[in-house]
């Protein structure tokens, strides 16, 4: 909670929004699941016919199941939003990653430069030998 206090107002509001979404979605899943279980009870006394009651219960269960799926999808979107928030607002980690990549690329550049210098020297030696052979040959 101390981390949330050090955050700017907009970030704190965003975190509160995430918390509210989480609570609402979990409550929706729980409430709809409870209502599906209530529908599964068989009632002997009813003012409507058995077939009508079955169809009504079926539709209610379908709607409740759709609500559970919607809440689950909302939770998955919430997880995605939280990950995005953490990635975009975790500056020390991002800076460390950039520093590591810069160091790695710098080392790779130095290694490549050394290889190019060695190749340049080898080519110069070979070229000198070829020129010497060419100019000392009778075909010149």
Automatic annotation (TrEMBL):
InterPro entries: Med22 (IPR009332). One of its GO terms (molecular function) is transcription coregulator activity. Pfam families: Med22. It comes from the Eukaryota. Its main location: nucleus. Keywords: Nucleus, Transcription, Transcription regulation. It is found in: Nucleus. The keyword Plastid does not apply. The keyword Transport does not apply. One of its GO terms (biological process) is regulation of transcription by RNA polymerase II. GO terms for cellular component: mediator complex. Component of the Mediator complex, a coactivator involved in the regulated transcription of nearly all RNA polymerase II-dependent genes. Mediator functions as a bridge to convey information from gene-specific regulatory proteins to the basal RNA polymerase II transcription machinery. Mediator is recruited to promoters by direct interactions with regulatory proteins and serves as a scaffold for the assembly of a functional preinitiation complex with RNA polymerase II and the general transcription factors. This is Mediator of RNA polymerase II transcription subunit 22. It comes from Actinia tenebrosa (Australian red waratah sea anemone). The gene is LOC116298216.
């Amino acid at each position: 909670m101390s981390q949330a206090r050090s955050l700017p107002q907009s970030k704190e509001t965003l975190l509160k929004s995430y918390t509210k979404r989480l609570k609402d979605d979990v409550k929706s899943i729980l409430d709809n699941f409870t209502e599906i279980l209530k529908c599964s009870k068989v009632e002997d006394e009813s003012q409507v016919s058995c077939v009508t009651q079955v169809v009504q219960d079926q539709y209610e269960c379908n709607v409740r199941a759709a609500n559970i799926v919607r809440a689950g999808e909302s939770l998955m979107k919430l997880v995605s939003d939280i990950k995005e928030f953490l990635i975009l607002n975790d500056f020390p980690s991002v800076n460390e990653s950039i520093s590591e990549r810069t160091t790695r690329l710098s080392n790779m550049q130095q290694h490549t430069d050394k290889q190019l210098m060695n190749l340049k020297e080898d080519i110069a030696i070979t070229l000198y030998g070829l020129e010497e052979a060419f100019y000392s040959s009778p075909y010149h």
